[in-house]
Amino acid sequence: MTTIPFWRRKKIRRQVLQGAFLAAIAAILIIGATTAQRNLSAQGISSGFGFLWRATGWEMGTSLLRTSPGDPYWWFIFNGILNTLLMGFVGLFCATLLGLVIGLARSSKNAPARLLGTIYIEIFRNIPLIVQLFFWYAVVTQLPNPRNAIQIGHVMLTGRGLHFPGLNVTVLSAVVAIAIMIAALFVILWIAVARRFGRVESARRRLLGLGVLVTGILGAAVALSWGRIPETPLVSLPELRGLNIRGGFQLRPEIYALAFAITVYGAAYIGEIVRGGFKSVGRGQVEAAQALGLSPWRVFSRVRMPLAVRAMLPILINQYVWLIKATTLGIAVGFSDFFMVIAGSITHSGQTLELIGILMAGFLIINFSLAAVLNRVNRAIALKGKQIGVAQ
What is the pTM of this model? Predict the structure, then answer.
């Protein structure tokens, strides 16, 4: 029996080629970094990340936490990331709700509803997002001035922003309270859908969910109490003082113009994904549920919706990641998101490569984390093995 030399073995050849490929990429990166550093030094530009601790010297338009020109670059970048996460969360949540309505209208048996859904999708899917963003921003900035504000109760809408009652608490405590409530809602959702709780009696699951909700509300109340601004009323109401509106909480026009544009545009795509998910549910499965005597709502909530969600979730993950990246268009209307803060930092500091690297790493972490969580949910609810046979 002849022995094959080790250099002719298929496994060895693959490992050698892969090692050479990785070495070539590493060499290109090292040469590129060395060349860039040498060129920057020749132009008198220092490299490295030491600038992150220097004062910016400029103001940030919109931020959840307090900022000032004396704050360092890393604080501005952190606030830019918070703004991007806020816009992404609001945009995804609202686009999902509206997309669900549009998708249900498109897949319903009602002809006017199908027509309205089709018109909506054909209009908003075929106009570029940035064009829609400019349109909505032009609309909201043409609203009346504070003296002629559109007022509904204590909510006032003007061309300078949306004013509504707020709490006299620090922003940090408000963020902590919101995070506690979101975590509590996720735990309640996990208890409702996770298989490990499938054997628990419904009454005990409801009691467990209620306990989590009460705990979340108490935790949020403690966080708000901890951050309450002393010697001020708990609730601050907006009111006209002179030529402007004081008190309460203000949302600047660029924030809700961008949120609205992302919601409307994203809902057009999500609506089609929802329609495809419902179309993938076999007619026989629905007829089998009806034959068991289930009501139309139970057929929808117990059969059609769960099966449709399983089909649409992988495509929704890609759409969510895309919508998060679409928040960078906020720079067109002056929204201080992650991308705009990085662009401003490059202009003032000249640290282009470092800041572009931070921008790429930041979006990589955000989108990778979102995709990882949703992929984990997708694997948890996917039908496997015998389940597929039973479903078919």
Answer: 0.77
